[in-house]
Amino acid sequence: MRLTFLLTLLTLGLVAHAADKPLNLTPGAAIRVNSIGFLPTSTKQATALATAKTFRVLRIDSTGEQEVFSATASAPLQTATTDTRETLRTLDFSAVTEPGRYLIEVPDLGRSAPFTIGNDLWNVPFTTVTRAMYLWRCGTEVTGTHNGVTYHQHACHLADGWLDHVGGGHTRRASTGGWHDAGDYNKYVVNAGVTVGLMLKALEHFPNRISALNLGIPESANTTPDLLDEIRWELEWLFTMQLEDGRVYHKLSSPDFRFWGPAANDKDPRYLAPWGTNATAHFTAMMAAAARHFRAHDAAFADRCLKAAELSWACLLKHPQQIDPDQSAFQTGGYGAPDHSARLWAAAELWETTGDAAVLREFEIRASKVAFSENGPGWGDVNDLGLATYLRSGHTTKESDPRNPALVRRLTDDLIAHADRAVTTAASNSHSRPLGVERQDWSWGCNGNVAGQTLQLHLADRLHPDPRYRETALLALGHLFGRNYHGRSYVTGLGANPPQHPHDRRGEPAWPGYLVGGAWPDGRSWVDELGSYERNEIAINWNAALIYALAAFVEPAAK
Ligand code: 9MR
Ligand code: 9MR
Ligand code: ZN
């Protein structure tokens, strides 16, 4: 009796105490800021816990610290239960424009991570994230140094791959090269699609910013843009995945995810998986687009790409119904998806490269049934890549345009609606995350979506220029580099307190320049743990999205 009474009192006390407290029982970081920083003229904001009433901005230089700005925080704002479930305030310091190194201080809450104001602050992130693709190369020795640490891998997977599961008996087909997919070392054609697609789009949309950059890869001395050379490493592998009649093998993989350790120690046999129409369509799209990009640098290689694309396109026409590979011999990544969007993208790129009217018709029939995606391009939905190519086609002049004008109008309106929604979503989200809080926005790999969604913003900016589109694309980067619940950079080796334990078979210290998948099912759920492959893995498709997002803000190298 007495014990029950005591327990009741205790419980009541706890309840009363809890009611006084803010909603979040385990608050995230106190002050959250884009830890790379800000362009001098852009809007500058950070996010802080509700107890922040005022704040100061301090400039840090060799002479010490100096207050350059102080202000009151915004009114408190409650974030959604599907987001981070907190009450937060916004700190606006857009008035600070002088290039330099800064931090924010809030009475009682402490200090933010340091950040930079400057014009070329996105260059190092861009080169690091792009060089990370080189560090993913399979079948060759790779090495690189970042922040004084040297990373090294011996040539791996030189026996790729066995034909047992594709009717070849226990014999091999030479299929070395390409990039490892992720924290696992397998190679999947479907995921190569959106990866190569976004990297080529970076060159297409921002050629003057990135073409002349030295990425420090083995091919840097030649005259081809380094990013194209990096893509070529993957294309050379992809050629080996194509059969003589244009069909394309779905993947090259070990039977399961068992192996852990350096890639060169992985002696598990790796097998080709049967062909499928989705892989074939992705292959066609990549090769057709690559043919255009390589034309000016290596005509023979461009011809090879185009021939391969046309062969696989013919194969797709011969197989109008989707054919999925039998993957029963594998427990690794399935990358199964409807092939509609990959066929659409393939048609767009092949038409853009050849001008073939029949291919344009095929594209327009497919495009009439789709809209821009909710989450930006992804491995299972590459419509945005195809629509982007179509809407910015080089085949149109003032006098003649072979495209269906009603379709062009509808798709343009749809794109603008999507971009405008990203703008308003960012404006109403406490961390200025454009992916928003209502839609399917905290999911496996959502950090890649945040980066990839900027494609719609930059495309919209080209068709209907509006400074808010580039501003919102910057906000996406700001979220990934620290203005988030954790107050941490989600990219290894870059920004404040970056991931140390990514799900990466190469181990630690964490290899630099990789975007981790991110929080889900809500904005608080990310963990920096090796075992958390659903939240803390790295993957080529997410890195490619970040390469695209960063390319937009690279300061071109002086000629
Ligand atoms: O390590 C694997 C990772 O690369 C994949 O993305 C992930 C999802 O397919 O699977 C991981 O492997 C896990 C497996 O699926 C279940 N057992 C634990 C494995 C991680 O060690
Ligand atoms: O990125 C993929 C994600 O969309 C899926 O939900 C998830 C489970 O199927 O698989 C992810 O892709 C993984 C792939 O299957 C194997 N390599 C690592 C990829 C990233 O985790
Ligand atoms: Zn390898």
Automatic annotation (TrEMBL):
Lineage: Bacteria, Pseudomonadati, Verrucomicrobiota, Opitutia, Opitutales
Active-site feature positions: 503, 528, 537
Name of the protein: Endoglucanase
Homology family: Belongs to the glycosyl hydrolase 9 (cellulase E) family.
Catalytic activity: Endohydrolysis of (1->4)-beta-D-glucosidic linkages in cellulose, lichenin and cereal beta-D-glucans
GO-annotated biological processes: cellulose catabolic process
Residues in Glycoside hydrolase family domain copies: 128-550
Keywords, sorted A to Z: Carbohydrate metabolism, Cellulose degradation, Glycosidase, Hydrolase, Polysaccharide degradation, Signal
Entry EC no(s): 3.2.1.4
Superkingdom field: Bacteria
Domain Cellulase Ig-like residues, every copy: 28-110
GO molecular function annotations of the record: cellulase activity
One Pfam family in the UniProt entry: CelD_N
EC class name: hydrolase
Alphabetized InterPro entries for the sequence: 6-hairpin_glycosidase_sf, 6hp_glycosidase-like_sf, Cellulase_Ig-like, Glyco_hydro_9, Glyco_hydro_9_Asp/Glu_AS, Glyco_hydro_9_His_AS, Ig-like_fold, Ig_E-set
Annotated signal peptide: 1-18
